[in-house]
Structure prediction request, 295 residues.
Amino acid sequence: MKIFLIFVSILTEIANGKTNWTRINDVCGVSHGDRIIGGTKAALGQYPWVAHIGLLKQERNDHKLSYECGGSLIHPKFVISAAHCVYGLGNNERVATIKLGEHNLETDIDCEGNHCADPPQVFYPERIYVPREYNDTKLKHDIALIELDEPANFTRYVLPVCLPSGDMIKNDLMSMMVEITGWGYFDIDDPVSSSILNVVRLPVVEIEKCKEIKQLSVYEFSKGQMCVGGIKGKDSCNGDSGGPLVKAMSMDNYGPRYILFGLVSVGVPSCGKFSLPAVYTNVSHYLPWIYDVIN
Ligand SMILES: *[C@@H]1O[C@H](CO)[C@@H](O)[C@H](O)[C@H]1NC(C)=O
Ligand SMILES: *[C@@H]1O[C@H](CO)[C@@H](O)[C@H](O)[C@H]1NC(C)=O
Ligand SMILES: *[C@@H]1O[C@H](CO)[C@@H](O)[C@H](O)[C@H]1NC(C)=O
Ligand SMILES: *[C@@H]1O[C@H](CO)[C@@H](O)[C@H](O)[C@H]1NC(C)=O
Prediction:
């Protein structure tokens, strides 16, 4: 299958377009998980926008599907992720599938107590959009949009997350707690990916805290990034890349909703072991680019 890769320059102004965002805002950011389950595991349906992105690696006569990245549904036809997850991959590697409504990777039908979710919805990438200015050596503009081959059906377990709007666009969330979800390693001393979606709660810290980290000094930092974490034992890690950083906030006319503020971009290989923060893409900064691609 051929996937079209499209480069779109970063814009500074939001374009008017034909997507009816009112219809998306009517349903976005709604969580159906009861929060009785504590600890690191997400409840079934708690983060219904989380996408699981599968990469196909071709090795001689063998195909291997691996899941190393996450994403978020923001529109019936678009999943947002990190550019490094979908672009500049190995020669024999490509984005193959996008799963929505996934919770436990080991079961076909995910259940909790006596209620079960619908089977995951599986999509193929139709087009992949990356900012023309993306540079993997600097890990700047680490954002990508994947256009799905057909629109997702919104259900209790598959819903888009809200994008920042109004006053929240300028909010830098400094010192606030945010939620990061993924199937990556959650115990660095036992680095196997988790089969159940995990959530970690961490504070947003000054970008200087990330600039100080030696292993990250090769990267260039800008307003397009945010620095999050710095709590020993808690971090996003391998397998969480591209996945969502959200915060519940009150949205005009809608009450509290989950808003997508960040995308997991880069951290140190030891993850949460040494209480170092990690770098996330600042979604607010890229809204004009996102609207330009989708519209
Ligand atoms: C957008 O959708 C909303 C809610 O479904 C509807 O009330 C409104 O008329 C639509 N706007 C346009 C321009 O189609
Ligand atoms: C969405 O629902 C339609 C109608 O039931 C169905 O044909 C389609 O396959 C569904 N799409 C996905 C991705 O499950
Ligand atoms: C990315 O940045 C590096 C280091 O500054 C530079 O050498 C390279 O040409 C850049 N690549 C692109 C595609 O701009
Ligand atoms: C993210 O981008 C927005 C919009 O450009 C900006 O107002 C905000 O301060 C940025 N956040 C951080 C942590 O730099």
Notes: The pocket of 2-acetamido-2-deoxy-beta-D-glucopyranose (ligand 3) is lined by residues 135, 137-138 (CB under 6 Å). The helical segments are 21-25, 83-86, 207-211, 287-294. Residues 215 and 268 are 6 Å apart (CA to CA).
